[in-house]
Design the sequence.
């Protein structure tokens, strides 16, 4: 792999996000200034941080959107104060028409005209994480105490509820809209086949699942709950139910970051600085392993090119091109 460039933020990298056209990379540290860089690591813009801590950033209307512990969202020349309490992440709907921010028991939703009428407020439990449906932009899944609820914008009640009796910490939706996966308070994963209304509870992880990632064609789900990453097949009538997953070793500590490229490559990063790039072929895999100088806290593939952005615990960001 070829190093295209590096740059540094003031704290460990919390989140990385490429702009939809792939021309800019938004690098968010846990605290301090938020950076916008080009494909070779050149700093294009420096954005102010959010006091005691930043949340995960996003792109909306072709501009960076940031949030944080000060309860503010900064976007497109304005500052949005939707309510009281910290904001840990903002996410844009797949069609780019809506921006959502989780804050306490509310999921605030803003449209392109600045209207907030579709927001979901006074929910039963706090919003720990949420995910837009990639195939239906007006649907969103919310994770928290009790599992996950699925909502359609404009409706006052969820259209589906997956309650397994515990708390879910992370949620991800497959690109085809069929599968919903949650990483849970217990060391487990729940996978829901939404059309069949069928949940699958997977246990046996050494620690809480820190990352989930679906492949771009919805054929695989990667889960990180230890130094071994488990990749589940998501094809067929039952998907992972009864199937044998692929177990990928090679990390020196628990995997902390996962991301699939548009071409099906899986990048894995751990807290010891181990980077794995996995190629899958006929149910088997090939592994390219690199040892980097510090722990890896975030990964993001370029939307169309074989370029991987790597965020480190020491605040460094590296851009690597596959050769």
Sequence:
């Amino acid at each position: 792999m070829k190093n295209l460039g590096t740059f540094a933020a003031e704290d460990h990298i919390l989140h990385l996000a490429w702009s939809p056209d792939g021309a800019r990379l938004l690098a968010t540290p846990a605290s301090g200034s938020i950076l916008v860089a080009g494909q070779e690591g050149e700093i294009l813009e420096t954005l102010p941080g959010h006091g005691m801590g930043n949340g995960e950033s996003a792109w909306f209307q072709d501009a960076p959107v940031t949030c944080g512990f000060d309860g503010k969202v900064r976007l497109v020349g304005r500052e949005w104060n939707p309510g009281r309490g910290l904001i840990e992440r903002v996410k844009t709907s797949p069609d780019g028409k809506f921006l959502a921010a989780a804050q306490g028991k509310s999921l605030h939703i803003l449209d392109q005209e600045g209207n907030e009428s579709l927001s979901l407020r006074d929910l039963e439990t706090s919003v720990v994480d949420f995910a837009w449906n990639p195939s239906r932009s007006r649907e969103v899944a919310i994770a928290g105490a009790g599992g996950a609820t699925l909502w359609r914008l404009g409706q006052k009640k969820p259209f589906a509820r997956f309650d397994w009796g515990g708390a879910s910490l992370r949620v991800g939706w497959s690109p085809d809209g069929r599968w919903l996966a949650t990483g849970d308070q217990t060391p487990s994963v729940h996978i829901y086949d939404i059309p069949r209304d069928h949940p699958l509870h997977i246990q046996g992880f050494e620690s809480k699942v820190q990352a989930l990632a679906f492949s771009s064609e919805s054929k695989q789900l990667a889960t990180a709950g230890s130094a071994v990453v488990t990749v589940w097949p998501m094809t067929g009538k039952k998907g992972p139910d009864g199937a044998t997953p692929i177990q990928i070793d090679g990390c020196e500590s628990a995997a902390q970051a996962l991301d699939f490229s548009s071409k099906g490559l899986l990048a894995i990063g751990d807290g010891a600085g181990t980077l794995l790039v996995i190629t899958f072929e006929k149910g088997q895999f090939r592994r390219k392993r690199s040892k980097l100088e510090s722990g890896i806290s975030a990964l993001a593939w370029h939307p169309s090119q074989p370029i991987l952005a790597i965020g480190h615990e020491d605040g460094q960001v590296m851009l690597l091109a596959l050769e």
